[in-house]
Give the backbone structure.
Amino acid sequence: MTELTHQTIAAALTGLKKKEFSAKELAEAHIKVMADTRHLNAYITETPEQALVAAQAADKNIAAGEMRPLEGIPIGMKDLFCTKGVRTTAASKILGNFVPQYESTVSGKMLSDGAVILGKTNLDEFAMGSSNTTSAFGNVISPWKRSDGSNADLVPGGSSGGSSAAVAARSCMAATGTDTGGSIRQPAAFCGIAGIKPTYGRCSRWGVIAFASSLDQPGIFARNVEDCAIVLKSMSGHDPKDSTSANKPVPDFAAALTGNVKGLKIGIPKEYNVEGMPPEITAIWQKGMDWLKAGGAEIIDISLPHTKYALPTYYIIAPAECSSNLARYDGVRYGLRVEGENLNDLYSKSRAEGFGNEVKRRILIGTYVLSSGYYDAYYIKAQKLRRLIYEDFINAYQKCDVILTPTAPSAAFAIGENDDDPLKMYLNDVFTVPASLAGVPGMSVPAGIDAQGLPLGLQILGRHWDEETVFRVSDFIETAAAFSAVPQMIQKKAA
Amino acid sequence: MSIDKETVRKVAGLARLSLTEDDLERFTPQVAGIVKWVEMLGEVNTENVAPLANVVNIDLKLRPDTANDGGYQKEILVNAPESMEGFFVVPKVVE
């Protein structure tokens, strides 16, 4: 029943309601793909038994005519969301055996809306990375291959690489992500799917293992914009347990997809035309502008003057918050413990053994920039730059309704290609980090393929709390682009 | 200033990270390179700019100071590497 795994969530909800298939059949079809695509290493922990129990409960509700918003929909859960009774690792050895005794707010909301969780998806360790090559549970491999026959394994993007690979490989219909500097938008672009990071504060961070708390924001991957809108509604909303979660009504995001962009003002930031950008990326960006213009939108040149300072600002603030958040892993209350001669030795050895190199590097940088004598020069300076970057966006939105940019400066690269130089790896996030610092919502939609047949994404950024316009423009671009490419492994299966 | 091995050793101590000599050899140039790179922020005049800690203007609400939760001793200890009689166990810290 492969066709069950190729439909959208919107179609599946209709099919379930009409009893064309059962939630159990839908879950079983995805569990089979999950098993068949294990070589991608997209899941750290599979939970098929729990999924089938949830699917049977969903079938009961459907039979009783009491369908919830995500009834019976198979979902992947990034292994950064604490799930009660199900191991949650953050892809780190230090949490290798951690079994939360509580459910994160976001996963709990999805479960009570009827979602069927198939498993915990792989990620970069503590969500630190742009290629999903820092996981203690091994690299995630993208389902995509270059069309030149090279057969090189490509990265799915990061940090939510397991989620993006799983959605693209059809082993779930949607998967949660978290985005700190681009960890939803960049993997969505690399895997040819849609992904949204909502406004900071839209989804509760309670029960999400913290990396950089002032930037971390849950969001969702799905194979189209409408499906993202359906699932994001379920994930969103005020949570008294997260003091930064906003007490604002959650709009019906899917209702915003009118297909009409007439009269909207689309900002094109000149600073995103970075040196050395591949011509294919420039071309897809131009196409995006042309589509919107043809739809009656107005293209406006704008400036976000502090763009070039966003990455260095981010690489002070994020490691600083990381070093503070990760201080909790001490080998005493939970997680890995390595015995030492004294308490200090136990801490240092447990942390040395439990954390991988990228995490250690960021803890070192974060500790340095927060240390006595350097705090003002680095951390406070970065917070000042953050305000300037934030104000850039506020000023830009006086002139335009959304901002259109490429999602990433390249298509997916091969595993190992950027490993030698952390700075080169960080440049992957050059187009996604500024919006994270400003806290504005951003979405990536697949817009075309490069000469190697790999997907390229466009990023749509909106005003704070205006996900609806982001969804509306993203949906319009999705329709105009008519992106139909799928990974070769899916084509082969369908053939 | 440029970062040397001794700086990284000191910072690792503050962060309670035990690093080998090999680790120090690897991390020192990387940390030094990244710190040097972020110093480009120095070229921006931020004299009259207030630091921004949180992007969303939410007034922090106070909740009533009442006990509304608790009784989770077993759940809290279940992931502890070592516990005894309802306590976390650590190496002896007082002589």
Observations:
- Chain A is about 40% helix and 10% strand.
- The first helix of chain A runs from residue 9 to 17.
